[in-house]
């Protein structure tokens, strides 16, 4: 295995299973779980995490956002159901039906084209009907206006409406009234469908915040997203109901240390100017790796368990920190950008607050230049390195 010094992420698979069990213990018996691993499992590695989770008996399957993400899982050997949560373009319908991928459906032209593909292949296309109860994103209206259309879609040849779902818009915010209204709308629409002879095997509406806070929304299945990764949906979600462990830590190393004198500037634009003699360390990481440029002059890293403030602007591939008060810091020392160093810790939530972004975005934006090292019991069990093959010649 190559020695990763410029930057690497560790992904704790033990924490992954801990988070799944923690969530599962908070939902009603008989409710299955879906692991939401879109956007490369929020930056953590979709194929690696899906293979780790697939054997769980209470796991229905996986949710992704695109046809490419679904086929990546299938190509890697994932056999459990895969649901594409967003709109899927028609050019991929045949391959998706052939590979038994579920699609979110909310337009009659989608349903007809999927039916045609299924008839051509001699297979069944499995739909999950998307219902818009508040997001104004995708989904049919939860009232009489959509019933005839949905009924016609359900009667197409070689199709099965396996599921029906909606998505909460404010479950991670203080105040339960908006989410309770969505649950009521969704339940009423399910009943309206049933009265019109339209039945579904799986009803699901809970996202991560719903899993934590709304037991009445468990239904047949819940969708675990951000909490799967040990991250919280928002600062407003109670943290004493379930326990979570972050999966990801981000590390680098000091490559250079130098002194700067009073009135000397650091980085582009000279936005930091030293007031006195400072000891400055260069870290070979930047926004090209997904490390936020907005941390310029206000973020920090951990070195020797101590905070080292960022000086000046974060560059595409490098940034500088102040190690004047960390006398023992030297070139080659490990740097913690995310995670723990001794008793100190930088969380994804804290980094999000400092950068003006949020934890979902930070995790998803971690780039392909960052190798992911997958850990069990403190040991590396596999590595995703996008450039490994380049070093085999």
Show the helix and strand layout.
Blueprint: E1 7-12, H1 13-24, E2 32-36, H2 38-42, H3 46-53, E3 59-64, H4 67-75, E4 82-84, H5 93-98, E5 102-105, H6 108-121, E6 125-130, H7 147-154, E7 159-165, H8 177-195, E8 202-206, H9 208-213, E9 221-224, E10 248-253, E11 256-260, E12 265-266, E13 272-273, E14 278-283, E15 300-303, E16 306-311, E17 319-322, E18 334-341, E19 344-346, H10 348-355, H11 359-364, E20 372-376, E21 379-384
Parallel strand pairs: 1-20, 2-3, 2-9, 3-4, 4-5, 5-6, 6-7, 7-8, 8-9
Antiparallel strand pairs: 1-10, 10-18, 11-14, 12-13, 14-17, 15-16, 16-17, 18-19, 20-21
Word description of this protein:
This protein is α/β, with parallel strands linked by helices and 393 residues long. It folds into 2 domains: 31-229, Alanine racemase (TIM Barrel, Alpha-Beta Barrel); 248-391, Beta Barrel (Lyase, Ornithine Decarboxylase, Chain A, domain 1), CATH 2.40.37.10. The chain has 11 helices and 21 strands. Strands 2-3-4-5-6-7-8-9 form an 8-stranded parallel β-barrel, surrounded by 5 helices. The protein has a 6-stranded mixed beta sheet with strand order 19-18-10-1-20-21. The protein has a 5-stranded antiparallel beta sheet with strand order 11-14-17-16-15, with no helix packed on it. Helix 9 (208-213) links the parallel strand 8 (202-206) and strand 9. The model has no long low-confidence stretch (mean pLDDT 96).
């Amino acid at each position: 295995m190559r020695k990763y010094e410029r930057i690497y992420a560790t992904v704790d698979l033990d924490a992954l299973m801990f988070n799944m069990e923690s969530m599962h213990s908070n939902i009603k018996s008989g409710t299955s779980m879906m692991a939401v691993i879109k956007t490369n499992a929020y930056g953590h590695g979709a194929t690696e995490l899906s293979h780790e989770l697939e054997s769980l008996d209470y796991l229905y399957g996986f949710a992704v956002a695109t046809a490419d993400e679904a086929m990546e899982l299938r190509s890697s050997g994932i056999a459990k159901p895969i649901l594409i949560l967003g709109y899927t373009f028609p050019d991929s319908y045949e391959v998706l039906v052939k590979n038994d991928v579920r699609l979110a459906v909310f337009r009659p032209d989608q349903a007809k084209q999927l039916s045609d593909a299924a008839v051509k292949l001699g297979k069944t296309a499995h739909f999950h009907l998307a219902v818009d109860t508040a997001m104004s994103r995708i989904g049919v209206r939860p009232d009489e206006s959509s019933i005839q259309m949905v009924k016609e879609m359900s009667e197409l040849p070689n199709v099965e409406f396996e599921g029906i779902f909606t998505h909460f818009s404010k479950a991670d915010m203080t105040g339960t009234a908006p989410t309770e209204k969505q649950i009521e709308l969704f339940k009423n629409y399910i009943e309206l469908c049933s009265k019109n002879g339209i039945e579904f095997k799986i009803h699901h509406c809970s996202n991560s915040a719903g899993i934590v806070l709304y037991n009445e929304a468990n239904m047949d299945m819940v969708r675990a997203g951000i909490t799967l990764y040990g991250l919280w949906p928002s600062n407003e979600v109670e943290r004493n109901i379930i326990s979570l462990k972050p999966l990801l830590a981000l590390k680098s190393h000091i490559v250079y240390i130098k002194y700067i004198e009073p009135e000397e500037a650091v980085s582009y634009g000279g936005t930091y100017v030293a007031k006195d003699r400072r000891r400055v360390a260069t870290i070979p990481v930047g926004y090209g790796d997904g490390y936020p440029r907005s941390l310029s002059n206000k973020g920090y890293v951990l070195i020797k368990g101590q905070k080292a403030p960022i000086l000046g602007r974060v560059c595409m591939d490098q940034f500088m920190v102040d190690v004047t008060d960390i006398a023992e810091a030297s070139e080659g020392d490990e740097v913690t950008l995310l995670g723990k160093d001794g008793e100190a810790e930088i969380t994804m939530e804290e980094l999000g607050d400092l950068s003006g972004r949020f934890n979902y975005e930070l995790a998803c934006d971690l780039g392909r230049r960052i190798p992911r090292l997958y850990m069990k019991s403190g040991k590396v069990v596999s590595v995703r390195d996008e450039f490994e093959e380049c070093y085999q010649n």
